[in-house]
Amino acid sequence: MATNTMLRIAGVILLLSLTFSGQARTPANDTTITLERWGCFGTCPVYKLSISGDGSVVYQGNAYVNARGVHKDRVSQSDVQMLVQKFLDAKFFDMSDGGIVVDLPVRVLSFNVNGRHKELREGCMCPAELVALEDDVDKTAQSEKWVRGRVRMFFHWPWHHS
Q1: pLDDT tens string 119-144
Q2: 3-state secondary structure 62-94
Q3: Where are the domains of the chain?
Q4: Backbone dihedral region of 64: left (phi > 0), alpha (psi from -120 to 50 degrees) or beta?
Q5: Least confident of 1-15, 57-71, 76-90
Q6: H helices then E strands: how many in the chain?
Q7: In CATH, what number does 28-147 get?
Q8: For the chain, how far is it from start to end, CA to CA, in angstroms?
Q9: What's the rounded Cα separation, in Å, for the pair 22 and 42?
Q10: Whole-angstrom Cα distance, residue 55 to residue 57?
């Protein structure tokens, strides 16, 4: 009888640990990562994309992109979680805005998670970690299929192959 009770308790503990460990890996419902690339005086791509905690991706192409308008896609929640972890590891909430330089493309990166929000605007003078996060957002959202085509930007572009 004692062995039976011990097995039941162990089973409940195992079940609870699996339940909570699965929740820890799932991004929070309020998780949103948004990247906006604003134009320059030339042909810099202008678009906005958002990735939500559930894996939904919304892209809005405006100018100098292969696909204009709103397009939607999905990525895995594990991809979102890896991206969230990159933001946390880079200490995004502690970063400062970069300098804006006329005629260079401006990027706006925002991160919402667990009730915290931060938005950074930068155009040239920014830490390498911020540029890497911008590139990671593009790669995670697989935005290349919408952006590339007519224009291949050389400055801070996440796809380095030709």
Answers
A1: 998 876 777 888 899 999 999 999 99
A2: EECCCCCEEEEEECCHHHHHHHHHHHHHCCHHH
A3: 28-147
A4: left
A5: 1-15
A6: 4, 6
A7: 3.30.1560.10
A8: 69
A9: 47
A10: 6
Q: Could you give the 3-state DSSP secondary structure of residue 29?
A: coil
Tell me the one-letter amino acid at 96.
S
Token duo for residue 81: 């979680």
Angle between helices 2-25 and 77-89 (to 10 degrees): 70
Which tokens sit at 30? Answer: 């309020």
Q: Give me the residue label for tokens 């952006």.
A: 147
Amino acid at 104: L
pTM for the structure as a whole? 0.75
pLDDT digits 0-9 by tens, 34-53 = 999 988 888 889 999 999 99
How is residue 61 written in tokens?
């192409």
Q: What percent of the chain has pLDDT over 70?
A: 70
Amino acid at 120: L
Q: How far apart are CA 142 and CA 75, in angstroms?
A: 9
